[in-house]
Design a protein that fits this description.
6 copies of one chain form a homohexamer.
Chain A: H1 4-7, E1 44-45, E2 61-66, E3 80-86, E4 91-96, E5 102-108, E6 110-116, E7 125-131, E8 135-138, E9 143-147, E10 154-160, E11 168-169, H2 170-175, H3 183-190, H4 194-203
Helix pairs in contact in A: 3-4
């Protein structure tokens, strides 16, 4: 009796606190390998040991995800992680996580970590340059970004209170959706001419 | 024994399902008036009967909030509402609610209602012109907007599954925070020159 | 890897915030059509534009449901809606929603909206005649009803903080269950003779 | 720093898992005595050892409550209990708990335990005579009742997954609210004449 | 359309409040029998009427579980129960329930019921001998045990606010895991020599 | 109107997503300092930059807590963190967090990270030596420990999905509670003589 999904209603699977789901479990499907022995990659992960290349995109940053898609062991446990690497001057551009609060640790270098409050706060801007070892918290659903203000590479590891926090990169969402948001809408929203909108749009035709 | 706050842990106040808190309740403070009789404004509200002036700001839209600050009766009940009025061509600019999913009803006129999925969906753009009587749902934390595509005024009433959903207006948050986000950060994020950023910033010096 | 059900543990499906489930998704089964394009009936619904005939049953009211069964787009999002239409003198008889708090908007006409508190409140009776544009909130699990006190038709649109709030119509549940509640039980509960119980039971043999 | 109320957001108070709140705690107020030593009535209760007199009201049953008002130790823990005693022929009349699922144990005698499903189930009626030692579950918000079908006294102890489940006695709520529901509303809802409604109302003028 | 798993996101299945899942439901699988009629073992259970033999193991106690595996009717309802029987001198050894708060009723005899607070409380030890009819609450995740201090058998029935609370027996987990925890780790943790650890380990080679 | 506590019912304070509570806020009391400006220690913390002395106690490890007591910024946000430092051969002895799942990152050195499943899994023992950069997840309420198997110091930073996860150190709770658990109870539970119990107890008279 596969009861993983219903146990999820209790905020945590019974099975995942004991023996993980077998290969034939309909919840995981045939692609799921059976965690076979102590020491395997089920409750542990090496995925964050190597970051990606921050220069592979215009942002100068790279996100290595450890959400439920990449780390099945967090399934039903309402947690996940990310590692982010930054080139000098690189940014993890303004974004929000629609389904999680985030806590983070700067693990290397220095990072400007900025959080902007909601309308109720007068869009208050919280900002600090954090060094390795310092931590930050991003309340659920608020816009935030990091910026590598130093001349060295920098990295951080963050954790979420959701197995699938999601990410909405604000510039990409506004200017690079599929299909695109009509230009008049964005011109009205940004209070500028259509040419300004189209200029920015042209920067996101390549996506992320 | 004021147990409203602890009862909130059960997702719903004991007291608010019976007799509301008295004036001296420390949770509500002295400013709270005692709901006195059946028929008063406690579980009922007339606040949505009159919308605000949509022409009082550059967006051409006006939000009348019925969250817990404006409608104490929803306290601990994990619901709230808003009425939004639109001038012709007016927009409720791209925004997110950090703490709630929203369902809405167009009550007058026609509105373009658009929702943009997260990165995982390829920033998929959902879009439809809705007439009075049609409904829409905005998954928690996703960016969305409405635009009055007609030559008549339009209105909608929306509901949230939080007593305090919050709102993050995207352009205002990026370009009108207090204090402002540094221009180089936004130039990097938007992939444009500082002048473009400063131009847009200049449009939000007056706030919302 | 179909993870919709487990993602539900995070209070919202990952997939439904991006690309919806395909036709072969085991969660939805083969009867589920693939939401094909922006503008379709996935995150939008036209179902509330037309109400049902309030004279088709003895109550003089008709409920058009937009819960997860009728609007798959709300799946995992903890919201749903209903439209209710009333003939003059019609009533949405005393009922409770076992799994949701409700907020409502009178959209046409005038409605007496009544809510009765729990035993703890001394069964306090909240009551008000609401006009179009006015709103109300029904705390989770409390008995309530609406009654069209005018000579015109009336309508309301309500929202729930559950995708499947359920409904327990009190008279129908007491007097028209399947099989019926034994008459002696109801006679004892209502403190009347069996004939009175049987009289009321006879009115509900046709069901809703 | 009294953080009990905020810790409630984590589904359980920090303080209550260690040293309980002091007498001056604003959450509990001055009426709260300090749990002083192991063995006191904080995490333990003797309240259910003695039931009340089931003949003191027309129902022939008596409820001894152990919710957060009567057992402060369950505060923030999302659990509570009740003991109910039944005279022969006594009933715990049809009622719902607006904020909890209930599990119960018959501790003495025999009880008819009945549960009626929601409209979606066709108001399906689940029914069984349970002997001492047998158990039952009442899904959240559904109407249910117990009836002592034997010639001996009977008792049960039930538990809830809320510290304050609340109770809505259906006949009392319909016919004995304060102030009363207008007779024409109930006549319409029950599909009977006003005299029948007024007859039943007259039985509840004395309340519970 | 099998929506049980997703409805779980609303804290309670729609289906289980009405007609239960059929035999072919993919969530329950073919082993699941169809609850056929009112009065069956779906919302009711006789499993707690007979306890197990407390002398069948070294603890002198026996647990009869009524969690979702043994009582499918509690599925999605966030409740479950246990009956525990004790021989004279028997103990339900120190254990924790990782996913639930527990409330309990002593149904026969006398039991020492002990609860130890977390580090924050200075590991405060709550302790009381309870007689039949007395109740206790165990905050989620705290270590606790019962001990039959009398010369008669004793029993209790407990309820949880999870359909699958889980159990971690502390001595068994430390000294009888599979494979075993390395002795040097336990010696360091317990601040004793390896021989002491190995002595205790030898007592748990037979398991529970 | 201080509504922080009630907003907590919505899984996140309104106020904390905007302007933090003032010094006179009854929820925080007079000891709470007003977060004064962007860049302060409200949403940021330097507390994890310096670990404690792992040789100051018999375990050879030191925990630096960043829960809500030490980092008020996480209040109502359902997250918190810890830094733990290990001497060579040091251990974070077997413990459980009663109210949270944990994810962790080894930041320095090598650590044996071990997790023991519940009874349902046969007390399955998950074990791996993790190097700096590797991560692990501890399902809510399960017993686990870390052990520094190298000759160098080691450190880790962990995150919780609760602002106040709590900690139950198993040996300390069993053998060093206040007042102590009676020796016969522990002798019965561990299946050894009283002398063995008293020997271990003697090691914990100094506490943690």
């Amino acid at each position: 009796m596969p009861i993983d999904s219903v146990a999820a209603a209790d905020f945590g699977s019974c099975r995942y606190r004991g023996l993980p789901a077998a290969a034939t479990d309909p919840i995981y499907g045939s692609a799921s390998k059976l965690p076979s022995s102590a020491g395997d990659e089920f409750l542990f992960s090496s995925r964050a040991t190597m970051g990606g290349d921050p220069m592979s995109n215009p942002n100068g940053s790279n996100v290595t995800e450890l959400d439920v898609t990449h780390w099945p062991g967090v399934n039903t446990l309402a947690v996940s992680m990310n590692r982010v690497d930054f080139a000098p001057g690189g940014t993890n551009p303004p974004h929000i996580h629609p389904r999680a609060t985030e806590v983070g640790l700067v693990t290397r270098g220095e990072l400007l970590v900025d959080i902007i409050g909601s309308l109720e706060s007068g869009n208050r801007y919280y900002s600090k340059v954090l060094k390795a070892g310092e931590t930050f918290v991003i309340p659920r659903g608020l816009m935030h970004f990091q910026f590598n203000v130093s001349k060295e590479e920098a990295s951080m590891v963050v954790s979420f209170n959701s197995q699938n926090p999601g990410i909405v990169f604000v510039p990409l969402t506004m200017f690079g959706s599929s299909p695109p948001i009509p230009t008049p809408v964005l011109a009205k929203a940004l209070r500028v001419d259509a040419q300004v909108v189209d200029l920015i749009k042209s920067k996101f035709t390549g996506g992320y």
